[in-house]
C-alpha cells in the first residue's frame, strides 16, 4: 500500500508534465524555402500552402503546371478558382464574410490580395479565329510592399470540382534590389544566432576536454560521454547555421539539411541517454545498470529514432501538408513519453539514496548525493518545461518579426542546462562521493531526519 502511495506521489509531477506537453499542439514555423507541392484530385474549398513574413520589399513567384479538373460539368468557371494572400488576422473576418453570405468565395473579399485567377489559363482571343486549347500552366510574379506575414492559399469555389496541379512557390524579401533573402522576416538572424551558439558550444567542449585532461584521476566514463554530447550539439548547430544560410541565399538547403538531420538525430539520442545515465548514477555511483534502468534506455532510444523521423517529415512537408499534423502528433507523443521516461531513473536514484542514508550510517555523503540528485531532478523538469511549453508559448505570443527571440530563449535554456549538468557533475578531486569527517556526519544525520519529514517528491 505504502509503495503504491509513494508511486502515485512520484508520478504527480510526471503527469502534470505530460498534460502540459500535450497542450502544445502546433508550433509556429517560419521556413520560407522554395516549396513544391502536388495537389491531387482535391475538392477542398481552401488549400493553404505556406507562410512568409515580408519586410518592406519582397516578392512572390508562383509556377503552376499540370492543371486538370475532374467531375466538372461543362465549362468550369475559372474565375472562381485562384491563389490569394491573406494575413492571419484577416482570415477570420474573411470566413465571417463567407458565413454571412456577403460573398460566396474568398477571392471576392477585399481583405485578401489575389495573386492570380485561373482564367489566365484561357488564351487571349486571337484574330485568326482558330481555337487554341486551354493552357495547363501559368506563371505569376508579384511585388509585395506590405510588411506583414502572409499565408499563400488556394481557393476552389466551384462545388465538387476536383483539381490536380503541381505548384512551385517562392516567397522572398529584397533587402537589396538584386539580392533575394528566402528566410522569412524574423528568421533572417538565425544563421548568425546558430553560428554564435556553435562557438559557445565549441569553447565549452574545449574547456571540458581540458578539465578531463587535467583531472584524469577523478574522471569517470560518463565524463567522456558528456564531452561527446557537447561536441555533437556543436556540430548540430554548425549544420543548422549552414542550412539556414543556404536557404536564405538560394531557397534550398543543398544537402546541409541532411547533415543537420544526422547530427540532430545523434544529439537527440545521446542527450536523452546522458540524462538517463546521470540519473541512474552510472559509472560514478555504480559501475552497472539495473534491469529497469536498462529498460528505460531501451525504450527511450527507439522512441528518439521515431521522434527524429517525425521531425524530418515535419520540416520537409511544410506546415499545411496533409501529413504534417499527423507527424506533429507522433512527434509530440513520443517527445512527451521520452521526457517523462528520463525522469524515472532520477526518482529511483533519489529513493535508493534515501534508503541507503538510513541504513549504512554514512549520512553526510548520502545527503550530499541526495541534494545533488534532487537539484538535477528539478533542473531536468524545468529544462523540459521551458524548452517545450515555454518556447512554444513565446513563439505564439510574439510577432512573426521577433521569431528569432523564441529560438534564442530555447537555446539559452539548453546552454544553461548543459552548463549546470557539467558543473554539478564535473570531475572534482573533492567530489561529494568521498568521505567526510564525523562532525559533518552528525549534522547530516540530523538533517536527513528533518528532511525525511519535510521532503515529498
Ligand atoms: C455583410 O452583411 C451584414 C449583414 O447582412 C452587414 O451588416 C455587413 O455590413 C455586410 N458586410 C459587407 C462587407 O458587405
Ligand atoms: C516589380 O518591381 C520591379 C522593380 O522594382 C519591376 O521591374 C517589376 O516590373 C515589378 N513587377 C511587377 C509585377 O509589378
Ligand atoms: C498592402 O499595401 C497596400 C498599399 O501599399 C494596401 O492598399 C493594401 O491594403 C495592403 N494589403 C494588405 C492585405 O494589408
Ligand atoms: C518559375 O519558372 C521560371 C521559368 O521557368 C523560373 O525562372 C523560376 O525560377 C520558377 N520559379 C519557381 C519558384 O520555381
UniProtKB/TrEMBL annotation:
Residue ranges constituting the GOST seven transmembrane domain according to the UniProt record: 192-432
Domain CAND6/7 N-terminal: 36-173
Gene Ontology CC annotations of this record: Golgi apparatus; membrane
UniProt xrefs under InterPro entries: CAND6-7_N, GOST_TM, GPR107/GPR108-like
Signal peptide positions (record): 1-32
Domain of life: Eukaryota
Transmembrane segments: 192-213, 220-238, 258-284, 296-314, 326-348, 376-395, 401-420
Name the record gives this protein: Protein GPR107
Location in the cell: Membrane
PANTHER family xrefs: DBJ|BAA84809.1, LUNG SEVEN TRANSMEMBRANE RECEPTOR
Keywords on record: Membrane, Signal, Transmembrane, Transmembrane helix
Membrane topology classification: Multi-pass membrane protein
